[in-house]
């Protein structure tokens, strides 16, 4: 009887402990974790994240995803090369990165590439069309104002906004060395084209962040990137945030 009471007490205490942990759990953007996420209380992170919110005009609850992007960007800032973002939209992550790094002190260019008008139907695969990818063009998630994007980034000098569709605009990136590449175009053909085009320009150790690689309902993008990675004899790290992380071999 005593052992049974002790076991019940242990279960009770364990449940209480779990409840206390869960109260402090991270639960956003499809990710639930009871693990440490005190990066959210870091003042530098908070400032950078808030700058991203200002750019987007909304808080999407992307803290851990942005944390990954900022970590990769900070590491890349110690490598030779410029930064490139393919799929900028309103500029959430890139604004956060430039805020964190005090961008104009680095003497490098951040290329921001996007249609700034949603998905280009010409570069959406038939399989993606069947899944309703083009439905994302409806509503106000995608910016329709290049002027608003330019105004957002006007506080930084070392920025080049490239307007148009990838892969057509890829030659406008003049840099021969790239240290950081963020890809977030929500459909496979332009994403594969971008990584394939920039691959030889990536500095040894360069960081590539794939925003939707492991995200639910983006399996077609993952399959396309896995095929490219196999051709390049590299592996993509699948992250619980839904992102993928690739580091160019030295």
Q: How would you characterize this protein structure?
A:
With 250 residues, the chain is α/β, with parallel strands linked by helices. It is 38% helix and 17% strand. It has eight helices and nine strands. It has helices spanning 2-23, 43-56, 63-76, 92-101, 126-130, 146-152, 188-198, 219-231; strands spanning 26-28, 31-33, 82-86, 110-114, 159-163, 178-183, 202-210, 237-238, 244-247. The strands form two sheets. A seven-stranded mixed beta sheet has the order 5-4-3-6-7-9-8, with helices on both faces. A two-stranded antiparallel sheet has the order 1-2. Strand 6 (178-183), helix 7 and strand 7 (202-210) form a beta-alpha-beta unit. It is globular. Mean pLDDT is 91; it is low at 1-22.
The major beta sheet can be summarized as:
7 strands, mixed
Name the quaternary structure: single chain
Structural class: alpha/beta
Helical stretch tally: 8
> Total number of β-strand segments?
9
Helix coverage percent: 25-40%
Please state the CA-atom Rg, rounded to the nearest Å. 20 Å
Percent of residues in β-strands: 15-25%
Written as H for each helix and E for each strand, in order along the chain, the element string is: HEEHHEHEHHEEHEHEE
